[in-house]
From TrEMBL:
Protein name from the UniProt record: Basic membrane protein A
Span of the signal peptide: 1-27
Family: Belongs to the BMP lipoprotein family.
Keyword set, alphabetical order: Cell membrane, Lipoprotein, Membrane, Signal
Organism, scientific name: Reinekea marinisedimentorum
Source organism, top-level taxon: Bacteria
GO cellular component: plasma membrane
Pfam families named among the record's database cross-references: Bmp
InterPro entries: BMP_lipoprotein, Peripla_BP_I, PnrA-like
Subcellular location: Cell membrane
Domain ABC transporter substrate-binding protein PnrA-like per the UniProt entry, residue ranges: 35-316
Phylogenetic classification of the source organism: Bacteria, Pseudomonadati, Pseudomonadota, Gammaproteobacteria, Oceanospirillales
Length: 337
């Protein structure tokens, strides 16, 4: 039922289908396939099940830096690969450039919009999932300070922090949410040392729970939290609860892998369509994770309260503000200094 609901949402695009023979590919971000985050979710929940079901030679490519994005997409396009899934919003300009040069191929970009007739853009309501884990953090914190670490200082990343702060303030109006950004460029997503250092700053400032939206650099955040008794971390994109058992409070998952599988599946079925898809809690595009690895950290009472918040967001009873759709303004305090 879980995957079925998301697959229904993935088919809700108004443009006419484009029919091509599937010969798919994926271009990961520079953080690498096994980043315990965004890329790895695409591999484990998208690439692996696609190969198991269809058995095709799906090509994977891992660029060393964003400077290689255009060249790797061009290489895949020259091979006639289609659909080509580009993992992450940092691919936006590269997809726009290459897709316009290969109009007969299909491209899908995760977390960004490229307005071309052969591009499928899949977005997620990260602010909804972040609200939920912000509430989890506030319920866990014994004092009034929690933290957020972003990989790159961009509104798209601040959106995670703003949703997190809204959820925390929903539980405790007196809580302080401290924010730190690792870098002003995309290198921040791979800077584990930078993640560690920013988390250490927050811990020194009294943060008891730290949420990371930092790609592979989040591993540094989790390491720092694990070294400090009474400090917890919240993972992002994929389920990272297993990384430091006893430290990882929960994870805000984006079902990017299922979305990637969906675009390849559509190509196989001849139903692939360009356009924009937006997936939130209602569409099972985002969620929080409770499993055997963090069960002992969250009481049954807290679980019920969090799931009630989740249901109220879906029903519209709780309205979560999208930072980027609100002129880059957060309705609650997100303290960056």
């Amino acid at each position: 039922m879980y995957i079925k609901k998301l697959m229904i949402a993935l088919c809700a695009v108004v443009a006419a289908p484009l029919s091509f023979s599937a010969s798919p590919a994926v271009a990961y971000s520079e953080a690498g396939k096994f980043d315990s985050s965004f890329n790895e979710a695409v591999f484990r929940e998208g690439v692996a099940p696609y190969r198991a079901q269809y058995g095709h030679n799906l090509v994977e490519i891992e660029p060393a830096s964003p400077a290689e994005y255009v060249s790797v997409l061009t290489r895949l396009a020259e091979q006639g690969r289609s659909p080509i899934v580009a993992v992450g919003f940092s691919y936006g300009e590269a997809v726009a450039e290459v897709a316009s040069q290969y109009p007969d191929l299909q491209f899908t970009i995760l977390d960004s919009v490229v307005d071309l007739p052969n591009v499928q853009s899949i977005l997620f309501k990260e602010y909804e999932g972040s609200f939920v884990v912000g509430a989890v953090a506030a319920l866990k914190a014994k004092k009034n300070t929690i933290g957020f670490v972003g990989g790159v200082n961009l509104p798209f990343i601040t959106k995670f922090g703003c949703g997190y702060a809204q959820g925390a303030h929903y539980i405790n109006s007196n809580i302080q949410v401290l924010s730190r950004m690792i870098s002003d460029d995309f290198s921040g997503f791979a800077d584990t040392e930078g993640g560690y250092n920013k988390a250490a700053e927050l811990i020194d400032a009294g943060a008891e729970v730290i949420y990371a939206a930092a790609g592979g650099a989040g591993n540094g955040v989790y390491d720092a939290a694990a070294e400090n008794s009474g400090v917890y971390a919240i993972g992002v994109d994929s389920n990272q609860n297993f990384l430091h058992v006893g430290t990882m409070l929960t994870s805000m998952v984006k079902n990017v892998g299922v979305a990637a599988f969906g675009t390849w599946h559509e190509a196989e079925e001849g139903t692939w369509k360009p356009g924009v898809k937006v997936l939130g809690l209602a569409e099972n595009g985002v969620d929080w994770k409770l499993d055997i690895f963090n069960r002992d950290l969250i009481t049954v009472k807290q679980e019920k309260e969090i799931n009630k918040i989740r249901e109220d967001i879906i029903s519209g009873k709780i309205r979560v503000i999208d930072y980027t759709a609100n002129n880059n303004q957060c309705p609650v305090a997100l303290i960056s200094n």
